[in-house]
């Protein structure tokens, strides 16, 4: 018997859901930081910085100090991207969850509850991409507490979204996730999602080879239009 249950969001879940979402996003900051440091542009920049300071000051220690400052600044920059994303979500759809997901058509919000606490969450809504509207629904805001991973909660939450979309006659479910969220990618692929496209969210993202992946799961019972 499962040690958790999936149910629809209630007003008393508000603080727990927002905290769970924020923690889930911010835990990927170290992976994002490591990805940046592995990029050729970042490594070249650090090398040039070290050489320039070493040549100008005449001391290799100052060159290392400059590199250390650059690494610290890069960490703060990567973290600022994540915190900005969290603030944007908390001030938009996660600011008024009932309006965004419970009273809106073809939308819903579920939580996973264990021992009286919210330990997981997921939402579904019409996709932002106009070409997908009327054809697919979008899985959003998936997050599970670290202490409760590996118990099938993510699969159960994903299944709620797939069943919800299929019951309403939609032909597919789409979602987006970042390239550093490897565990999420494995989960979605195991549930039948396939990566259909990728893009960099900004010029800096392009320079650092950071991408957002778009996934799609075609549902049985209706022929889904091909992704654009």
Written description of the protein model:
The protein has 228 residues and is of the alpha+beta class. Helix content is 47%, strand content 21%. A 7-stranded mixed sheet has the order 1-2-3-4-5-7-6, with helices on both faces. The N and C termini lie far apart (42 Å).
Q: Please provide the count of β strands.
A: 7
Q: Span from first to last CA? A: 42 Å
Question: Largest sheet, order of strands side by side?
Answer: 1-2-3-4-5-7-6
Please identify the structural class as seen in this structure: alpha+beta
Q: How would the global form be characterised?
A: elongated
Largest sheet: 7 strands, mixed
Mean pLDDT level: 90
Low-pLDDT sequence parts: 223-228
What's the helix-strand series? EHHHHHEEEHEHEHE
Primary descriptors:
228 residues; alpha+beta; seven-stranded mixed β-sheet; disordered C terminus
Q: In brief, what are we looking at here?
A:
By secondary structure, the protein is α+β, with helices and mostly antiparallel strands. 47% of the residues lie in helices and 21% in strands.
Can you lay out the helices and strands and say which pair or pack?
Layout: E1 5-8, H1 14-26, H2 29-38, H3 40-57, H4 60-90, H5 97-102, E2 108-114, E3 117-125, E4 136-144, H6 153-167, E5 172-178, H7 182-190, E6 194-199, H8 203-207, E7 212-218
Parallel strand pairs: 4-5
Antiparallel strand pairs: 1-2, 2-3, 3-4, 5-7, 6-7
């Amino acid at each position: 018997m499962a040690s958790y249950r999936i149910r629809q969001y209630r007003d008393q879940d508000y603080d727990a859901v927002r905290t769970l979402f924020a923690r889930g996003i911010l835990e990927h900051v170290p992976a994002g930081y490591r990805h940046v440091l592995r990029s050729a542009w970042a490594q070249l920049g650090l090398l040039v910085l070290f050489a320039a300071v070493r040549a100008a000051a005449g001391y290799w220690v100052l060159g290392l100090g400059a590199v250390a400052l650059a690494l610290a600044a890069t960490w703060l920059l990567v973290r600022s991207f994540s915190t900005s994303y969290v603030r944007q979500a908390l001030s938009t759809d996660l600011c008024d969850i009932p309006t965004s997901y419970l009273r809106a058509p073809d939308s819903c919000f579920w939580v996973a509850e264990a021992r009286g606490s919210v330990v997981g969450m997921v939402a579904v809504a019409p996709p932002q991409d106009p070409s997908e509207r009327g054809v697919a629904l979008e899985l959003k805001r998936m997050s599970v507490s670290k202490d409760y991973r590996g118990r099938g909660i993510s699969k159960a939450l994903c299944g709620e979204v797939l069943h919800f979309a299929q019951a309403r006659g939609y032909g597919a479910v789409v979602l987006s996730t970042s390239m550093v969220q490897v565990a999420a990618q494995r989960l979605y692929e195991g549930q039948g999602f396939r990566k259909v496209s990728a893009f960099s969210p900004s010029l800096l993202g392009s320079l650092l080879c950071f991408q957002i992946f778009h996934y799609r799961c075609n549902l049985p019972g209706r022929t889904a239009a091909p992704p654009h």
